[in-house]
Write a structure and sequence with these properties.
With 258 residues, this protein is an alpha/beta fold. Helix content is 24%, strand content 24%. The protein has one domain: Alpha-Beta Complex (Spore Coat Polysaccharide Biosynthesis Protein SpsA, Chain A).
Length: 258
């Protein structure tokens, strides 16, 4: 059944809104496409322009005013934990950072969230893929996304990037999006005009009854899609997918040109 309430997906020059209390940074993956760099360190600790991908994600959260983050860890988990502790000792923010330990079993995106749910505050929270970077448009991107969140109409709100502006991305796109922001997945081998940026707000109710086992975000997304409660917002700024060794230099060159 489609939601009848239209979400408030309008850009404004000033965003004053309530932020989700927590965010989860997805940092547990094996980083296979980033080899050989990831032979000795996890992908989130790879540096782009002198700063690690993990630090960049946590910097964004701290700057927006999100007070709590959860970082999941599996591959080189000790290094992830050490990086979080070092950041905490410097008071770099967010105010509280927890680590969700997945050493025993890599749970993928959906399963990783289920395991971390006891650590996450509030009904809805941000999730950020650590291998994606963005540059804000006119407004802080996290606050912009939060300002468009409508819990009565949504279970998931994804930040989308037009395929033509998806730097470092070599796929066919992920979603179609209508004028109200409602999402439809790409069909088969066809192209879709929008790419999921790796940043979203999602409500914990989508994970009700889910076991702690490996599964992707799509299991939760399919629930939201079936109820007409999955929406997107087009990112007005720049976005970069840092997925291969070559993409590091490409991203650094683009950052220098800004």
């Amino acid at each position: 059944m489609m939601a009848t309430a239209a979400p408030p997906l309008s850009l404004t020059p000033f965003v004053d809104c309530e932020l989700p209390a927590s965010a989860m940074v997805m940092a547990a993956g094996l980083g296979k496409r980033m080899r050989p760099i990831t032979a000795t360190r996890p992908k989130p600790l790879i540096e782009v322009a002198g700063r690690s991908l993990l630090d960049r994600a946590l910097d964004r959260l701290a700057a927006a005013g999100v007070g709590h983050a959860v970082v999941n860890a599996h591959y080189f988990a000790d290094q992830i934990e050490a990086a979080v502790k070092a950041r905490d000792s410097m008071g770099a923010g967010p105010a509280r950072i927890d680590v969700s330990d997945e050493r025993g079993l890599l749970l993928e995106t959906g399963g990783g969230i289920v395991k971390a749910l006891p650590l996450l505050d509030g009904p809805a929270f941000f999730t950020i893929n650590a291998d994606n970077m963005w540059i804000d448009g006119p407004i802080d991107t996290l606050r912009l996304l939060a300002s468009c969140w409508d819990d009565a109409a949504m279970d998931a709100l994804l930040l989308m990037v037009p395929l033509a502006r998806a730097h470092g991305y070599d796929g066919r796109g992920d979603f179609h999006m209508d004028g109200l922001g409602r999402l439809t997945p790409r069909a088969g081998m066809k192209l879709a005009p929008f790419v999921y940026s790796g940043l979203q707000i999602i409500n914990r109710r989508l994970f009700d009854g889910e076991p702690v086992e490996p599964f992707t975000m799509w299991r939760a997304w399919h629930k939201a899609l079936a109820q007409g409660r999955m929406y997107g917002l087009s990112h007005p700024g720049l976005w970069f997918h840092v997925g291969t060794p070559a993409s590091i230099g490409e991203t650094e060159s683009l950052l220098q040109a800004i």
